[in-house]
Specification:
Low-confidence stretches of chain B: none
Number of strands of chain B: 0
Low-confidence stretches of chain A: none
Structural class of chain A: mainly alpha
Shape of chain B: flat
Number of strands of chain A: 0
Mean pLDDT of chain A: 91
Structural class of chain B: mainly alpha
Number of domains of chain B: 1
Largest sheet of chain A: none
Radius of gyration of chain B: 19 Å
Largest interface: A-B, 41 and 38 residues
Oligomer: heterodimer
Radius of gyration of chain A: 16 Å
Strand content of chain B: under 5%
Distance between the termini of chain A: 22 Å
Number of domains of chain A: 1
Mean pLDDT of chain B: 90
Number of helices of chain B: 6
Helix content of chain A: over 70%
Chain lengths: 119, 131
């Protein structure tokens, strides 16, 4: 049976994965105006927001890692692949199809295998 | 003889391929970053001087930062729903680097996992091409 601490760690990872998903969304939006002019990029609000959300999601993840094993938590982070596909459709108007969904399912299974058996 | 004008779908496929190559390059950089962060973490001391003289740690951060910039470049040219799944390739590079440089080893099911990740990424790329 899962203990309270396990559930808390799992919830933190899930919150982190939602935040990371929006990080990717804003990185994508900011990428449209990306160039190597630093003065311009520090005012690229979407890019900065994307980076901020990424860092924030890492903090949730690292905090969760202090409570639970990596081999349990890492496979959970791969749920992000599903959330990213969903926001790509909803907010960017991108199209998913069966091969793409199948690919994401395989990636999640693969990551789960690699990390579950890590020592 | 005049060159046949390229169709838009042909141009799109070319753009797609370059975005895919870019994100693969990104995963190579972030994986090298992880390797060097691991080296740096091995002799980590929490004092300012030893942090800024820990070359492996600094190199790890540089690789990571470069990988992040390359990711944004890939996102500029490709759909998020195509690019994001490719990030999973870093699992393969990190596994291989850990075997070569850290003397770690993988069990059979982990190799199977790597093959499944590769097939997953192939399906995503195929799906994006046929869309």
């Amino acid at each position: 049976m899962l203990e309270v601490l396990n559930i808390l760690a799992i919830i933190l990872v899930l919150i982190g994965s939602f935040i990371g998903t929006f990080g990717s969304l804003y990185l994508k939006k900011g990428a449209k105006n990306f160039n190597f002019n630093i003065l311009e990029q520090i005012r690229n609000k979407q890019l900065i927001l994307g980076i901020f959300l990424f860092v924030l999601s890492s903090i949730f993840y690292i905090y969760a890692l202090s409570m639970e094993k990596l081999s349990l938590l890492y496979p959970l982070t791969s749920l992000t692949y599903i959330w990213v596909a969903l926001v790509s459709v909803k907010f960017l108007g991108e199209k998913m199809n069966k091969p793409k969904w199948l690919g994401i399912a395989l990636i999640i299974i693969g990551i789960s295998l690699v990390t579950y058996f890590s020592t | 003889m005049t060159k046949k004008p390229k169709s838009t779908s042909e141009l799109n496929k070319k753009r797609l391929s370059s975005a895919i190559i870019t994100v693969i390059l990104c995963t190579v950089f972030t994986s090298l970053g992880q390797l060097f962060l691991k080296f740096g973490a091995n002799n980590l001391e929490l004092s300012f001087i030893s942090l800024i003289t820990n070359m492996s740690l600094i190199l790890g951060c540089v690789f990571y930062g470069t990988g992040a910039i390359i990711l944004v470049l890939a996102l500029k040219h490709g759909d998020l729903s195509l690019i994001y799944p490719f990030i999973s390739l870093s699992f393969i590079w990190v596994s291989l680097l850990s075997i070569i440089f850290l003397g770690e080893s993988l069990v059979l099911l982990q190799w199977l996992g790597i093959l499944i990740i590769i097939s997953g990424v192939s399906f995503v790329s195929w799906g994006a091409r046929s869309a």
